[in-house]
Amino acid sequence: QVQLVESGGGSVQAGGSLRLSCAASGYTYSSYCMGWFRQAPGKEREGVAAIDSDGSTIYADSVKGRFTISKDNAKNTLYLQMNSLKPEDTAMYYCAADIALLRVRNGTPRNWGQGTQVTVSS
Fold it and tell me: 36-47 pLDDT, tens per residue?
């Protein structure tokens, strides 16, 4: 059974940084595609970044140049380094995984974490 547990959220001022982590278990981590998603109150969930099993990455335009997705296969952990945070980055951030990259890219991965809250104040 796939399990994903996020951590690292918190409250920061605009311009600050946070690093989110997602500890994974229950599957062959290195062969899965993974992504970070976020949902702000009253808004639809949106994809933030994704990373393929070979390490290829994609980012939403809104976070390009500020966020970096990475993974450590030895630790079965996914990361999201978030720099130059803005108030509009405030949301619940979710880690997700799927063997199929297409599902991660189109927002329908089959495995989700519980989320970690990020709040950015101006």
Answer: 999 999 999 999
- Residue 46 tokens, joined: 């949106």
pLDDT in tens, 30-74: 788 999 999 999 999 999 999 998 999 999 999 999 999 999 999
Q: Enumerate residues 6+ apart whose C-beta is below 8 A from 86.
A: 14, 120
Q: What is the DSSP letter of 86?
A: -
Q: Exposure of 67 by Cβ count < 10 A (0-12 exposed, 13-18 middle, 19+ buried)? A: buried
State which amino acid sits at residue 22: C
Question: Above 90 in pLDDT, residue 29?
Answer: no
What's CA 113's distance to the chain center, in Å? 10
Neighbours of 49 (CB within 10 A): 24
> Which parts of the chain are beta strand (E)?
3-7, 10-13, 18-25, 33-39, 46-51, 57-59, 67-72, 77-82, 91-98, 111-112, 116-121
57: three-class secondary structure by DSSP: strand
Contact 51, 57 (CB under 8 A): yes
